[in-house]
Amino acid sequence: MSISGILTSLHWLVPAHAAAGEIGALAFLWVIIELANRQDRGYIRAKWVSLGGFILLFTSWFLSGTYYLTHYGNVVKQVIKGGNLAWAHNIIMETKEHIFIFIPILALFAFLLILSFPKWSTNNKIPRRSIYAICILIVALGFGMVGLGYIISAAARATLGGGV
Amino acid sequence: MKNIKALSISSIISIGIVTLITLIGEFSAPFKNGLAALTSHHWVTKSIIGMIVFVILSIILGYMIKPDNENSAKYIWSTFGVALGSAVVLFLFFTIHALV
User: What whole-number distance in Å separates Cα of residue A15 and Cα of residue A22?
Assistant: First the structure.
């Protein structure tokens, strides 16, 4: 399957954006573990993993935006808003799509933060807890997106007849 | 150590702008339509604005603002607070907006 095929196929776009987002969020969990160990090698891994996490979350943002513009707005949104579960779009999707905008920004911020402390294992003045908190927030928001996405797809299925 | 203060202020402003233009767009249809007209969709415009503001401000403020490494934690926690607060505000706003 080519990249253009993925970008135009609903069956690839939905799992691809979810997978990129989940793996990207998990990357920041990995980063926390590496940083908490306070080893030089762990810090180097944390730098690369946080860069990978940012790239994955940015990719997820791009794929989900493509899905949102090509499929969701034209089809799924109309289905949900036409049924009894319109709140799934009006509350859940509206919240999801706007929080999603600043997750890649937070991921880039976290990567640049980690890059800023080359003496991670030896310098005791590094604000470790606040950096962990940013990473935890990225993980929480990333998996929050997954949960909200599940509610939206469940609402669409239920509106179309349920049990699908 | 890089300029954490500049990075934090940039992220706070970019996340704040995304949240603010989202809320303004929900109250003003012409504003939302204007955002949509800039690209193809208001979501795309907000996304591009958020990322560009963060990157450009990080570079500009990195030169303009003196690093304040003693207070790095304060700036990072502020970013955490603004990001978490924005998420909560957006959820509460859309909940109230849908129910009222």
Answer: 10
User: Which amino acid is present at B12?
Assistant: I
Separation CA B83–CA B16 (nearest Å)? 8
* Predicted confidence pLDDT, tens digits, chain A (164 residues): 676 666 677 778 888 999 999 999 999 999 999 999 888 899 999 999 999 999 999 999 999 988 888 888 888 999 999 999 999 999 999 999 999 999 999 999 999 999 998 888 787 788 999 999 999 999 999 999 999 999 999 999 999 886 54
- Residue spans of alpha helices (H) in A93-127: 94-115
Tokens for B53? 């503001």
CA-atom Rg of chain A in angstroms: 18
Interface of A with B in 1-60 (CB under 8 A): none
Alpha carbon distance A42, A34 (integer Å): 5
Task: Note the ipTM here.
Answer: 0.93
Cβ-based contacts of B11 with chain A (< 8 Å) = 105-106, 109
Q: How far is CA A3 from the centre of its chain?
A: 20
Q: Which residues 6+ apart lie within 8 Å of A47 measured at CB?
A: A111, A114, A115
Burial zone of B2 (CB within 10 Å; 0-12 exposed, 13-18 middle, 19+ buried): middle
